[in-house]
Automatic annotation (TrEMBL), chain A:
Pfam families the record matches: MoCoBD_1, MoCoBD_2
Position of the signal peptide: none
Gene Ontology molecular function terms on file: oxidoreductase activity
InterPro entries to which the protein is assigned, alphabetical: Ald_Oxase/Xan_DH_a/b (IPR000674), AldOxase/xan_DH_MoCoBD1 (IPR008274), AldOxase/xan_DH_MoCoBD2 (IPR046867), AldOxase/xan_DH_Mopterin-bd_sf (IPR037165), N-heterocyclic_Hydroxylase (IPR052516), OxRdtase_Mopterin-bd_su_IorB (IPR012368)
The protein, known as: Isoquinoline 1-oxidoreductase beta subunit
Alphabetical keyword list: Membrane, Transmembrane, Transmembrane helix
Domain Aldehyde oxidase/xanthine dehydrogenase a/b hammerhead stretches: 241-319
Segments passing through the bilayer: 7-26
Automatic annotation (TrEMBL), chain B:
MF (Gene Ontology): 2 iron, 2 sulfur cluster binding; metal ion binding; oxidoreductase activity
Taxonomic placement: Bacteria, Pseudomonadati, Bacteroidota, Cytophagia, Cytophagales
Protein name: Isoquinoline 1-oxidoreductase alpha subunit
InterPro entries: 2Fe-2S-bd, 2Fe-2S-bd_dom_sf, 2Fe-2S_ferredoxin-like_sf, 2Fe-2S_ferredoxin-type, 2Fe2S_fd_BS, Beta-grasp_dom_sf, Diverse_Oxidoreductases
Record Pfam families: Fer2, Fer2_2
Gene3D superfamilies attached to this UniProt entry: 3.10.20.30, [2Fe-2S]-binding domain
Ranges for domain 2Fe-2S ferredoxin-type: 1-76
Keyword Manganese carried by entry: no
Native organism: Algoriphagus boseongensis
Alphabetic keyword roster: 2Fe-2S, Iron, Iron-sulfur, Metal-binding, Oxidoreductase
PROSITE patterns in the cross-refs: 2FE2S_FER_1 (PS00197), 2FE2S_FER_2 (PS51085)
Amino acid sequence: MKKWTRRAFIGAGVLASGAVIIGIAIRPGNRTSKVSGLVAEEGETLMNIWLKISPDNTVTAIIPHAEMGQGVHTTLAMMLADEMDADWSKVKFMEAPADKEYANYILAKGFIAGDANSPKFLEETIDGVFLTAVKSMNFQITGGSASVRFTGQQGMRIAGAAAKAMLLQAASETWKVPVEELKAQNSTISHAASNRTATFAELAPAAAKVKAPKHPRLKTQDEFTIMGTSKPRWDIPAKVTGAAKFGLDVMVPGMKYATIKSAPVFGAKVKSVDTSIPSNSSGVLKILNLENAVAVIAEGFWQAKTTLDTLPIEFESTENDGKSQEDIFNEYRQAMDKDLAEGNLDKHFKSGDAMAELSKAETLIEAEYQLPFLAHFTMEPMNCTAWVHDGQCEIWCGSQNPLGVKAAAAEVLDIKPDQVTVHNQLLGGGFGRRSETDVIKQAVLIAKEVDYPVKLIWSREEDTQHDVYREAMVSRMKAGLDQSGNPIAYSHQFIFKHHPAEAADVPYAIPNQLIQYSSPASHVPWGNWRSVDHSVHGFLTESFIDELAFAANQDPFTYRKTLSKNNPRFQKVLDLAYEKSNWGSALPPNWGRGIAIAQSFGSIVAEVAEVEVTMEGKVKVHRVVCVADAGFAVHPDGFIAQMESGIIYGLAAAMTGEITIKNGAVAQSNFHDYPVTRMNEAPKIETHIINSGNPPGGAGEPSTPVIAPAVTNAIFNATGIRIRQLPIAKTDLRVSIRQTT
Amino acid sequence: MINLTINGKNYPVEAPPGMPLLWVIREQCELTGTKYGCGIAQCGACTVHVDGQPIRSCITPASSVEGKNITTIEGLAPNENTLHIVQRAWIDEQTPQCGYCQSGQIMSAVALLTENPSPSDEEIEQAMSGNICRCGMYGRIKSAIKRASEALQNSSTTNPMIP
C-alpha cells in the first residue's frame, strides 16, 4: 500500500470522479451489520458506526482518533453526547478498531475540501464511491488539527443527532404518541402528557430498526449543553498514577527486546557486520542485518543497546557522505537561481504584475531568510512491539495512523491487512512523527525472524538521527511600497511545498503578487512537523510584513490591521491582542514587543511576545498573549491547553531548534545538543478565545506558526536586529554587537 | 542477582554490572510508569526517589541502590483509592497532555515540596527545569505545584506529603 500523504490522496483521482459520487448515497447505518462484530458486545445495540448503547444505559462513542494529549476522546464524545441529549455521566468512549470499516471518510472529505467549506457534492451524506476510495487509502489519521473540525462536526454530531431521532421515533411508535410531544433528556425519552419515561437502553433495540434520518437536525450553538464546557479529560487520571499505557509500556508474555542502528547517512546500506553473538555479551539472543540497519534482540533493551554500541558495523558509501549543512544550503540557493533564470519555478499564486510594479515602487525591500531542519523529539522515543505467528501479525504501538500501520505490516510480510491486528496505545507525543510507519516496518522485519514477540525500542540517539524532518529552506522576499508605505507589489520565492496548500498565501491586501517555489532534491527525509508548511510560512510572512511596517515607519499592529481591511475576523483578533497585551505601553530597557498573526487549520491566532535581550545577548521570552478566533471552542480548556502547547513547541524550535547535516548524517543526537524549552525558559502564556460563531477551527497546530515571528519581531523591537535565520541562537545579540550594527 | 526494595516490596532481579535502574524497574519489575526519554539524565522522565531523594534512574546503576528505599510513581499514592496530594493537584489543574513525562514531573514535584512546602516561582523553576515536557505544559505544572503547596498548608495531617 502506498504511503499516505494528503497530496497523494488528492492526486489519486478521487476528486475527478466527483460526478459519479453524487448519486450513490449510503447511510452509515447500512454498514452496522459488518461492524457490530468489531465493536459491540452481547446485549449492546450499535445505533450507527460511531455509537452504541449498553443495557445499563451507557452511551459509548466510538472514536476513530488516537489520544496524544489533545483530549480528543473526551471532546469528540462531548459532541456526540450533546446532540443526543445523553447524560454525560453515563457516556464512555472506545477507540475505533484499526479496521477498514472504520476508515475515516469524514476526515478524508475534510482534507480534500481543505480549510474551505466542503464542496456540495461531499456534504451531508456519505457515499459509497467515496468511502471505497477512502478505505483503499487506509485513511484513519489523527493530524491536521482535524478531529473536531471534520470527525466531530460531520461525524460525531450527526451520529448523536441521528441516534436521538431514532430513539424518539421508537418511543413514538411504542407509545403511539406524536414524536413532537416527546423529549430527550439525560439519556431518557419522556412523554409528559402520559407521564411515561424510558431509558435510551430500553428503546435502543427498537430504535436500531428505525430508518436513520438522512439529515438529522443539529443543535444551534445556543442549544448546546455539553459543547462549550470544559469537561475533565478522561485520559488524565491514569497519567498521574503511572497506569497510562503508552506503546513503550506494552508487556506481552514471552516478549523480548530489540534496538536498532540505521545507516547514519540516509539511504546507505550495511556493508558488513558480524552477526555472531559476541562472547562477552550478556542476554543477547540474535543480531540481524536488515540491509540498511542492524538490530540486536536481547533479554532487555540495555543488553541489546550495549551490544549494538560495540558492534563493528561498516556501511556502504553514498554520494552524500561528504555533504555538510552548508553544502545543502548552497545546493538550495543554486537550484533557486537556476529555476529563476530558466523560468522553471512552480507557481503558487499570482495576481497583477508584481515584477513590473516592483521596478516602479518608491521603496524596494528585499530579504533572504533561512530555516533549519527540525526534528520532532516526542518525549516517548519511537517503538513498536510486533509478534508474527500462525500466518498473522499483531502490532502494539501508539500511532496517529493505525490503518497505515496495518498496511505497512501487511506489506512487509506479504500478507493481507486483515491478517494484521493493531493494538493502538496512548502516544507519548505525536506532532506528526507518529503518522509514519518506518519503525513499524522495522519491528515486523525483526519479529518475522523469531517466534516470540519483540519490542523494538529506538534509543534517543536513533530517534534524533532517523527522524523525518521539517525541511530546511531558503526564502527570498521582495516588496515594493508606495509613497505612503503601502505594499503595492510582493514577490516570494521559496523552496519546497508540501501542505496545507494555502500556507504560503499572504493574508494581506497586496494587489500585485507573485509567489513561486522550487523543489530541489534532498537526501534528508521530510515529514509532517506540527503545523507543517505553516511553521515555515508563518515565520516568513510575519517577519517580512514587520520589515515592511518598519520601512513604512508605521506601527506593526496598525500596519497589519490596515492591510487586513478585507478580513474582519483578522481585525477582531488583532484588536483583542492589542488590548490584552497593552500594546504600546512602556517596557523596561532591553525589552521589546512583537506581534504576529496567521490563519491555519481553520483558526486565526495572533500572538504578542514580550522579550528581554540581556546585555550578554541572552533572549528571555517573558510573556506571550495569545488570541485565537476558534470559531467555536468545543472544549475551551482543551483549546487553551493546545494553544499553550503549540507555543512552547514552536518556541523551542525558534530559540534553539536546529538539525544540521555533517558528512551526510545528522550531527545532533540527544537533548544536550538539541536543546528544547524548559520550565525556566518558558514564558507566561495568556490565552483568549474568540467564539466568532464560525465552525470550530483546529487547535493542535495553529498557535505554532506565529510564535517564532512574534519573538523575532520583539527582538527587533528591543535591539534593532532583524533575525532572518533560525534558530535565534545563531545570531549574536550581545549589546556590543548591537551597537556596531 | 540483587534485591531491590521498590515501593516497599522486595524484588530479586538480574542486573548485569552497570545496568541502569530504569530498565530493571520497567522490564523486570514491570513498573512501566517510570519512563525512558533520553538515557543521559537530560530529560527527567525516569525520575524516581531513592531514600526520598529524586534521582535519574537512567544513569543510576541498579546495583548501587540495593538495600535502599526506591519509590516510583506507582508507589506514591497511599492506597488504591486515594491519590497523593500532588497527583490530585495535577488532575485539578488538568495538567498532562500526552502524559509521558508526567511521572517524572510528579516525582520531581513531590521531592521539591517535601524539601520546601511553599516554594516561590523561582524555586519551582529551579527544581523543575531538569524535567522536559514536549507538550509544553510548564504553566500548568507550576500551577499544580502551587495548588499542592496550598493544600499542604491547609492539611491537618502530621505528614501532609502522605495524605
